[in-house]
User: Fold this.
Amino acid sequence: MKTKGRIHPVYAEMERTVFDRMSALAREHGAINLGQGFPDAPGPTPVLEAAVRALREKSSQYPPGAGLPELREALCGYYARRQELRLEPDHVIVTSGATEALACAVLALVQPGDEVVLFQPAYDAYAPMVRRAGGVPVSVMLQPPRFAYDAEALERAISPRTRLLMLNDPLNPAGTVASEVELATIACACVKHDLIAICDEVWEEVRFDTAVHRSLISFDGMAERTVKIGSAGKIFGITGWKIGWMIAQGELAMAVSRAHQFLTYSSAPPLQWAVAEGLAMPSAMLEEQRSGWARSRARLKEALQAEDFAVLPNTATWFLCVDLSASGITLTDRQFATRAVAEAGVATIPVSALYEGEGRPEHIIRLCFTKPENVLDDAARRLARWRRQLR
Assistant:
């Protein structure tokens, strides 16, 4: 069969995701993988035990497409306690991870020719999803070290064809959190220009230094125009479970749920029951887990700084970023990442791979810190030894 010209150009011209490439190189070279973001720990024991009970005692057959009622109700209670959001179970649609939720939102809401504002750097699935739906990504560039949201840059990106905006807060890969003023500015732009906001908030519970999450959906005029996306994988550190959700109201909820019913339709019910139990557990469990991640963050930061790597400020996510130029390293981030995995035995992510458009920085690398302390120490030593050989 001839396939030339028969594969959609979005996929025909697409490279493998940078996370897959760097993880493959880490396996090939036997390197420490600080590239792909996941904790080495198995996750909170009470949540794992809840999954075992559900597998033994509850149904493993199709659950309702929108999600188990127990999980939808648990999410309403969870967000009421943690973020003071008033939600109803009908506002919640459970998905097979946050990436499926993003796909549902884009497929349901982006029409051919629609422009969609994307803040860069961004999860590298955003732009291909928009293009596959026939939309046109329009980039607003965020620059290190603060990755601040600029009101004037946002206004310049909006045209009569703009229909949506995608926001990732906290921001991966930067590990930064939008300020109240920045969020208010984005909300005002959405209301002023009648834009729908797809809000990727999977890192909402992975915040440090007393930072508190506020969702864009809570700002005036945003409840009816926002799709809020969350992830049990990030909240509990169980990325492979792939239990996510969308929160929306009215016609938005109807639209995204219809897209969901013809993608995965439903997700593993034992895992849904376990997540529902986990969300209802005392908040001390999440605080203890976050404290452990905070210690790992401090461990890697101190180890890198002791070797004269310039570590950028971080308030959230599982990642630290290093400024290569400020560290006295002349390699680009892609050169550094490609060579470091083979020569130093440490896999990282070049942040330029998560940008589209002109003006992207090429001197920032990202490292995942949710690993055992001895692994983080070893990674920092390997990078330091290799760096000295570069001089």
